[in-house]
């Protein structure tokens, strides 16, 4: 059975006609649901009372949902974030996952599908949490084709960019991979944004791997890049 905190769901949606059915549906499923209608209120809520899942609309009145996602991750939020939005373009989906979201659902969507997605996210996050307490010593298992990572029998929930960074580091185990190569291979050789994006991604990846007690460590080599140290990963 999931612990009480793992059942709390935060709905961040400024349109009442969308939020109310969501809240009612999730409450009927037995979740402890909170609803807020702005990005800053969502961030404040996560600080005072962490949630296992955040259902986050992008079109909020005070700030873009992607900014809420980024700030929540930067502040250390480790729960699941599912973006729901009318912006159904591929670019928004990719950008959302890069900002630290775990899943994406385009409007309009069926409530049954939303319920299934929330259940899946809770299974993934609760599995990773449990691994941290009793799975010390597990090595990573990387399923490249499925783009999934496991610590023992438990899946480690990674975003798309976190997976790609880890996959490159694992393929070059115990060797230093330069910052430039990671930026070119994972983002794009024409990426003109700040390389802080890489540092944020590495930070979240480290946090997740340490949280499940794996033997591998991501080590920074000052002025050069990063190296994955530890036992061999295999698919």
From TrEMBL:
Residues 8-122 form the Response regulatory domain. The modification 4-aspartylphosphate is found at residue 57. InterPro entries: CheY-like_superfamily, OmpR/PhoB-type_DNA-bd, Sig_transdc_resp-reg_C-effctor, Sig_transdc_resp-reg_receiver, WalR-like, WH-like_DNA-bd_sf. Keywords: DNA-binding, Phosphoprotein, Two-component regulatory system. PROSITE patterns: OMPR_PHOB, RESPONSE_REGULATORY. Residues 131-230 bind DNA. Residues 131-230 form the OmpR/PhoB-type domain. Signal peptide: none annotated. It comes from the Bacteria. This is Response regulator transcription factor.
């Amino acid at each position: 059975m999931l612990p009480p905190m793992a059942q709390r769901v935060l709905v961040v949606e400024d349109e009442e006609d969308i939020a109310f059915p969501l809240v009612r549906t999730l409450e009927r499923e037995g979740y402890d649901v909170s609803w807020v209608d702005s990005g800053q209120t969502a961030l404040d809520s996560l600080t005072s009372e962490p949630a296992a899942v955040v259902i986050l609309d992008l079109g909020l009145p005070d700030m873009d949902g992607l900014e809420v996602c980024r700030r929540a991750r930067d502040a250390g939020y480790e729960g699941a974030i599912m973006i729901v939005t009318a912006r159904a373009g591929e670019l928004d989906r990719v950008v959302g996952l890069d900002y630290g979201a775990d899943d994406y659902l385009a409007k309009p969507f069926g409530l049954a599908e939303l319920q299934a997605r929330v259940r899946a996210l809770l299974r993934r996050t609760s599995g990773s949490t449990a691994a941290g307490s009793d799975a010390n010593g597990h090595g990573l298992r990387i399923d490249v084709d499925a783009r999934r990572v496991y610590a023992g029998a438990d899946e480690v929930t990674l975003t798309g960019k976190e997976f790609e960074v880890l996959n490159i580091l694992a393929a070059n185990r115990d060797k230093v991979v330069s910052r430039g190569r990671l930026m070119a291979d994972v983002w794009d050789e024409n990426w003109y944004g700040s390389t802080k994006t890489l540092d944020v991604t590495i930070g979240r990846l480290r946090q997740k791997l340490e949280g499940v007690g794996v033997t591998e460590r991501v080590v920074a080599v000052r002025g050069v890049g990063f190296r994955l140290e530890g036992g061999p990963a295999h698919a």
